Amino acid sequence: MPDTALRADFVNGMSRAAATVTVVTTDGPAGRAGVTVSAMTSISADGDAPTMLVCVNTTSSAAAPMMENKAFVINLLEASQQDVANVFASRLPAPGGDKFNAVSHMPMKTGAPALDGALASFDCTLSSAQLVGTHYVVIGSVVAVRLRDGGKPLVYGMRSYLRAEPA
Questions:
Q1: 68 neighbors 30 (Cβ within 8 angstroms)
Q2: Residue 52 placed within a domain
Q3: Which residues form the signal peptide (predicted)?
Q4: Domain containing 121 — which CATH number?
């Protein structure tokens, strides 16, 4: 039986870790999908291609299409994109029933969509995915990057959106 006190302490502890809000998108034969994720990081800029890691809950509507399409874009949201984050997290209704109606987007090299207004969009091919508990730990090889001039990252921590300001 899971230790509910340990789980509660873990969740409370992790709420204190601030992170850039990220939406992962995919498109291809398995369909178009996207989800707001809380676990994303770069792995390396060196080697054959830069690599990134993202964790996606297996119950997410984006998990299966992402695995089958074998391509995805990691979109780092800008501070003004709270509504976009909430739509892709299913906290707000998707306009017209499609999350992608919440923001303009364009396909990158793999065909996966980059979200307009994102500070950075990393177009990735799926290198590996491992099921760990309730999540897929996904490694992607970056094949293209789209950058936005200006703006500040949308940050989430302490169970709310935060502003990133120089210290």
A1: yes
A2: no
A3: none
A4: 2.30.110.10
- Mean pLDDT score, 94-121: 98
pLDDT at residue 42 tops 90: yes
Tokens 């309730």, residue located: 134
Residues of the chain with pLDDT > 70: what percent? 99
Whole-angstrom distance, CA of residue 104 vs CA of residue 114: 9
Question: Residue 37 has which token pair?
Answer: 């994720």
- Buried-state track 45-82, b at ≥16 Cβ within 10 A, e below 16: eeeeebbbbbbbbeebebbbbbbebbbbbbbbbbbebb
Range(s) of the domain holding residue 34: 20-42+60-125+144-163
Q: How many structural domains is the chain composed of? A: 1
Torsion of CA 101, 74, 11, 87, to 10 degrees: 0
β-pairing, 71-76 vs 120-132, is antiparallel
Summarize pLDDT for 2-25 with one digit per residue, the tens.
789 999 999 999 888 899 999 999
Residue pair 116/80 in contact by the 8 Å Cβ criterion: no
The contacts of residue 18 (CB under 8 Å, 6+ apart) are 155, 156, 157, 158, 162
pLDDT of 1 reads: 67
Residue 27 inside a domain? The answer is yes
Does 165 have pLDDT greater than 90?
no
